[in-house]
Design goal:
By secondary structure, this protein is α/β, with parallel strands linked by helices. It has four domains: about 110 residues, DnaA, N-terminal domain (GMP Synthetase, Chain A, domain 3); about 160 residues, P-loop containing nucleotide triphosphate hydrolases (Rossmann fold, 3-Layer(aba) Sandwich), CATH 3.40.50.300; about 60 residues, no CATH class; about 90 residues, DnaA protein, C-terminal DNA-binding domain (Chromosomal Replication Initiator Protein Dnaa, Chain: A). The chain contains 21 helices and eight strands. The longest helix is centred in the N-terminal third of the chain and has 19 residues. About 5% of the residues have low confidence. The chain binds adenosine-5'-diphosphate and magnesium ion. Magnesium ion binds next to helix 7.
Length: about 450
């Protein structure tokens, strides 16, 4: 006997919750928030979704699983057809009143301070909020294989690609998935810069044994951005031995770099050959569809929703770097508070602020100048060894912005200020902490940031 539409309605919640279990909460929220059955005739179940884009994304990525889940609950369904909703999703104008109430420009809740102290992993990076498209699907599959059989399939796994394409996200998500799956496996994530600094400190403090132990007692070692090893002979040597130690015990090792092993300059041959000994795989900048999907997910994470054209316009203009794409989206969300109508021009302006050329023009001088002008000081003041609280904070802001806008390393910033890397890191973290705590302060930083960007 054929199932009725009423019956389907009554078990729809279960279908949805099953889909959510399969896909993870984030993906589910993004793609299934307007997913409703509208008719069931001749064994064909029609389901309404919110937009053309969502329809085509679901058809390409999830139709198979949607059909499978539906059939387990409603065996009579022979096929599933997605249609676009006739009542448009809430428009931005309506949303704005809600937006006003929420804390706009909410920095993502999770930050450096939620990093798991044992693993050094940040829980915000997960598989279920990693959008998979043609540019990263092989790397994603390789990461999943690593989770399924750590140490056995791709060892080491070496992921490379340009800045901002999701390497760190994928590596950390792999680590997070491993600790979730195997409660007894020890994972340690480290950025290579951190690895090198810790090594230097341990040599200084004569605590090299501790250092060695820290990286050898693990079941999974994840080392991000190994191109920083270039020219660092001592760190290369140490990593080489760490690698051999772990590898011989069948432990999983995962690396990332901004280029393939063969193209990292000034690196020992024996280490290069270790990098190449497992699977070397690249991540490319995402295609248009994936960029739109990522924007949608990021907006969702910030509890904002735009009409399709907004995502599409952003994704059309910013092609290479997802961090930049996210930056443009954040700026847009921030600006919503001050504008009456979201027009193409507004979005285009934001895109301009975030275009690559724009970034290249940000010099440390520009950052320092803007900050000191903002606070009515003279340029030299930030370099003075003044301990007065306000100077310390203003220096912190400069450090924070150099890191965020110029993507300078802590040591590089340290050179500018004639301070060591730990002091810089500490100053940076203080600012992040304050931004999270005080919306007023966060807004002030945003204003300085846009001053820097606007005056280029
Ligand atoms: P990389 O390490 O390659 O420079 P990141 O991993 O830091 O890049 O990614 C930059 C930003 O873009 C991060 O906020 C990350 O969450 C986001 N991002 C990158 N790729 C994806 C993806 N496929 N899905 C969702 N977010 C992504
Ligand atoms: Mg990275």
């Amino acid at each position: 006997m054929a199932e009725s539409k009423e019956k389907i309605d009554s078990i729809w919640e279960r279908v949805l919750s099953d889909l959510q279990n399969h896909l993870g909460e984030s993906a589910f929220k993004v793609w299934f928030n307007h997913f409703q059955p509208i008719s069931f005739e001749n064994y064909v179940l029609k389901i309404e979704v919110s937009s053309k884009f969502v329809k085509s994304w679901l058809e390409q990525k999830y139709l198979h699983i949607i059909q499978r889940v539906i059939k387990t609950y409603i065996p009579d369904v022979k096929s599933v057809v997605l249609t676009i909703s006739s009542s448009p999703i809430e428009t931005l104008q309506k949303k704005r009143s809600i937006l006003r109430k929420m804390r706009i420009f909410e920095h993502s809740k999770i930050s450096v301070f939620d990093v798991n102290p044992q693993t050094n992993l940040n829980p915000r990076y997960r598989f279920d909020n990693f959008v998979v498209g043609s540019s990263n699907e092989l790397a994603f599959a390789a990461a999943q294989a690593v989770v399924n059989k750590p140490g056995l399939i791709h060892n080491p796994l070496f992921v490379y690609g340009p800045v901002g394409v999701g390497k760190t996200h994928l590596l950390q998500a792999t680590g997070n998935e491993i600790i979730k799956t195997y409660k007894n496996l020890k994972v340690r994530y480290t950025n290579t810069e951190q690895f090198i600094n810790e090594l230097i400190n341990s040599l200084k403090n004569k605590s090299i044994d501790e250092f060695k132990h820290k990286f050898r007692e693990v079941d999974v070692l994840i080392l991000d951005d190994v191109h920083f090893l270039s020219g660092k002979a001592k760190a290369q040597e140490e990593l080489f031995h760490t690698f051999n130690f772990l590898y011989d015990l069948g432990k999983q090792i995962i690396f990332s770099s901004d280029r393939p092993p063969a193209l990292i300059p000034d690196i020992e041959e024996r280490l290069r050959s270790r990098f190449e000994g497992g699977l070397v795989i690249d991540i490319q900048p995402p295609d248009f569809e994936t960029r739109v999907a990522i924007l949608r997910l990021k907006a969702q994470e910030k509890k904002v929703e735009f009409e399709d054209w907004v995502y599409e316009l952003l994704a059309e203009k910013i092609k290479k770097n997802i961090r930049e794409l996210e930056g443009a989206l954040n700026l847009l969300i921030f600006k919503l508070k001050y504008i009456d109508k979201l027009t193409k021009e507004v979005v285009q302006e934001i895109v301009k602020e975030f275009s690559q050329e724009f970034y290249r023009k940000i010099t440390p001088k520009k950052v320092i100048q803007t900050v000191v002008e903002h606070y009515g000081l003279k340029e030299g003041d930030v370099f003075k060894k003044l301990r007065k609280k306000e100077y310390v904070e203003i220096r912190g802001i400069v450090i924070y912005l150099l890191r965020e806008l110029c993507q300078y390393s802590y040591s590089h910033i340290g050179d500018i200020f004639n301070k060591d890397h730990t002091t810089v890191l500490h100053a940076y973290q203080k600012i992040v902490e304050k931004i999270e705590k005080y919306p007023e302060f966060s807004r002030e930083i945003e204003i300085i940031r846009s001053k820097i960007l606007q005056n280029l």
